Amino acid sequence: MVSSETIQAIQARFPSAEITEFRKQFRVCVPREIVHDVLRFLKDECGFTLIIDITCVDYLYYPKAKDRFGVVYIVGRPENADRLIVKTFVNDPEPTLPTVTDLWEGARWLEREVWDMFGIRFEGHANLRRILLPEDFQDHPLRKDYPLQGRGERHNIPVVTRDMG
Amino acid sequence: MTRMTDLPDNVVITKLDALVNWCRKNSLWPMPFATACCGIELMATGASRHDIARFGAEVFRFSPRQCDLMIVAGRVVMKMMPVLQRIWLQMHEPKWCISMGACASTGGVFDTYAVVQGIDRFIPVDMYVPGCPPRPEQLLQAIIDLQEKIQREGSAWGKDVERRPHQPPRALLADPKNPRLLVAGPPIFAQDEAANKWDTGKRGESPDS
């Protein structure tokens, strides 16, 4: 569990951060303008030297959601196994966030996956291209407005017949 | 003059095709293309309890150039399909393909944007094995059925290959319903209607409606 001194330090440094607790787990919701500063602060001054995951939530059909995408950073402190969730929100069109690869090299593939699946662009990422789907894929399939069965990509493959080989 | 009945008991008269097919069907070399849980059952089929060696198909090779039976066990996603086709094309004739399990045959429960809804849309398939995953007995039954098919259809010099309907290469066109999608168009070298008479396949032409 993250110590209350750390939480107070975050709140004092970033007054606009909304810190909530659920079952001893803290979540820090920050505006997208300061998310990079918050993460830099967590890494350099609070000891969260590990990026555990970067992922995203699409709130498209949530009736009470104010923003469309919630990008979630999970950072960890290896000394005492603390975890902290930092969350920020971005919107259409062109949802964009600053990259955190300057803080953690390990965020490269995580940001590529978020780009691949949700289309969140990370400015400053050295190699922001698809990581799981084929390079010529057109959509970002984990967005809620993408049909589950796709738009025909799974059948857009040439046919190999018996007489070809 | 020697009559047939004068032959000694250890001599059998048969057709060369039948002999060659008999050799082929009892010496299948499977190429395991195992991508999911069906692969576990495939391993169980190869293990001692179910013992695929009873049917002469125990020599699994992981190089397609040494194999003549591809067993596609598990779901195939669209990114994997070109790999599967390439492996299939690397295998030498005569060759056969078993689509093992619901996923390889129809996509199974994975009716999503990435999973191919049946590998027979894009490569030829000889035998389908139902089940999720199939029991090893079912795979063995498929091999037995495939052996019957080999005995029935093959020929020593590949005459059956020449008799196959030739499907000319086809152009890829933009689908009018979805401009981002390419679908198989008319044959590239079509000269007249006769050249188009093999244009029967609907599979792989259009996406799901």
Describe the structure.
The complex is a heterodimer of chains A (165) and B (209). Chain A has 165 residues and is an alpha/beta fold. Chain A has a single domain, classed as 2-Layer Sandwich (Beta Polymerase, domain 2). Helices cover 21% and strands 26% of the residues of chain A. In chain A, the strands form two sheets. Chain A has a five-stranded mixed β-sheet with strand order 1-2-5-4-3. A two-stranded parallel sheet of chain A has the order 6-7. In chain A, a hairpin with a 4-residue loop joins strand 4 and strand 5. The longest helix of chain A is centred in the N-terminal third of the chain and has 12 residues. The radius of gyration of chain A is 19 Å and the shape is elongated. Chain B has 209 residues and is an alpha/beta fold. Chain B has two domains: 118 residues, 3-Layer(aba) Sandwich (Rossmann fold), CATH 3.40.50.12280; 42 residues, no CATH class. In chain B, the strands form two sheets. Chain B has a four-stranded parallel β-sheet. In chain B, a hairpin with a 2-residue loop joins strand 5 and strand 6. The longest helix of chain B has 18 residues. Chain B starts with 15 loop residues before the first helix and ends in a 22-residue tail after the last strand. The C terminus of chain B is likely disordered. The interface between A and B is medium-sized, with 24 and 41 residues.
